[in-house]
């Protein structure tokens, strides 16, 4: 994923650390597109070497059946708190509500 040049100055409220991670697929105007082609660009056999981990370890640490909530403690000394969330559902239509105080 690209970004802005190092000499470009963002407004202070938009100055966050650069993106680190992987984005494999996205869609634009309802057309799925791949954001990379490792075989063509890097001659990398992605069946032998995964460029990005595509699956996270599953956990039943917080399991909700229909309703529920979780309270997540923040990191007390983090300058920019970050949260990771993986949601798996078996329904076609659902609602996820996130509230921050």
Provide structural commentary.
The chain is mostly loops and 101 residues long. It has a domain at 10-55. Helix content is 5%, strand content 8%. The chain contains 1 helix and 2 strands; from the N terminus they run ββα. It has a two-stranded antiparallel sheet with strand order 1-2. Strand 1 and strand 2 (31-34) form a beta hairpin. The two termini are 31 Å apart. 0% of the residues are buried. The model has no long low-confidence stretch (mean pLDDT 69).
How would a textbook summarize the main sheet? 2 strands, antiparallel
Helix segment tally: 1
Structural class: little secondary structure
Q: How many runs of DSSP E, i.e. beta strands?
A: 2
Q: Beta-strand level of the residues, as a percent range?
A: 5-15%
List the helices and strands in order: EEH
Main sheet: strand order: 1-2
| Overall pLDDT confidence | 69
* Low-confidence sequence ranges: none
Question: Which value, in Å, is the CA radius of gyration?
Answer: 18 Å
Helix content estimate: under 10%
Protein name: Laminin subunit alpha-3 isoform 4
